[in-house]
Specification:
This protein is of the alpha+beta class. It has one domain: Lipopolysaccharide (LPS) transport protein A like domain (lipopolysaccharide transport protein A fold). The chain has 1 helix and 11 strands. The chain has one helix at about 1-35; strands at about 50-60, 70-80, 85-90, 90-95, 100-105, 110, 120-130, 145-155, 160-170, 175-185, 190-200. The chain is globular.
Length: about 210
């Protein structure tokens, strides 16, 4: 049972997080590149005050057929001129692409740096990649969910890191760990500590 569980964890680590968090990295790159509040530039005299804010913020990216492929919705968005960051309250980020499962990320807060090199999702962070409709064998692979209190996305490096507890689930089971490093370029995931997994019983078809 131990070897079976370890083999499952190995497969899970190299598959589920890469698919979901890799899509999250791509989505955040779009967010950094496309969604930026342009407010007036002035000397804030050391104060961290917004120069512009938007209530019920919504930004979308359309494909050539006019269909929404990426969307960012937030209760409030505000830009801070002193460090050129943009902050979002209650962000909901949606990523849809032809032939790819829908991805949705929600959090209490999100911050994008002015140089577009870092994005931080904080508070009840939940990322859900829906089941892929067409997989070998004709069986859906099921939704994949990542939950944590903090995710730091580094688009240029294609990396996602957190030092907080993280839970990753799909129909096959659950992985829990403290700390995570995803390198989407090398397709590797490293869990820092306290790694545990729960394997769901499977009916043998043989």
């Amino acid at each position: 049972m131990r070897s079976r569980a370890q083999a499952w964890i190995d497969r899970f680590v190299t598959w589920s997080p890469v698919l979901l968090l890799g899509a999250l990295a791509a989505l955040t790159y779009w967010l950094n590149a496309q969604v930026r509040i342009a407010g007036p530039t002035f000397d804030g005299s050391g104060r961290h005050d917004p120069d512009v804010f938007v209530e019920n913020f919504k930004a979308v990216n359309l494909d050539k057929d006019g269909l929404i492929r990426q969307a960012l919705i937030a209760r409030r968005a505000q830009h801070y001129p002193d460090d050129d960051t943009t902050a979002f309250d209650a962000p909901q980020v949606i990523f849809t692409d032809p032939d790819k499962p829908r991805l949705e990320i929600t959090a209490n807060r999100a911050t994008v740096t002015g140089d577009r090199e870092h994005a931080y999702f904080e508070g009840n962070v939940r990322a859900v990649r829906e089941a892929a409709p067409d997989v070998p064998g004709g069986k859906p692979d099921g939704p994949i969910t990542v939950e944590s209190e903090f995710l730091h996305v580094i688009p240029k490096e294609d990396r996602i890191v957190t030092d907080r507890p993280v839970t990753i689930t799909d129909p096959r089971g659950i992985i829990r760990a403290t700390g995570l490093e995803l390198d989407n370029k090398t397709k590797t995931v490293k869990f820092k500590s306290r790694l545990s997994g729960q394997l769901q019983p499977q009916n043998s078809s043989r």
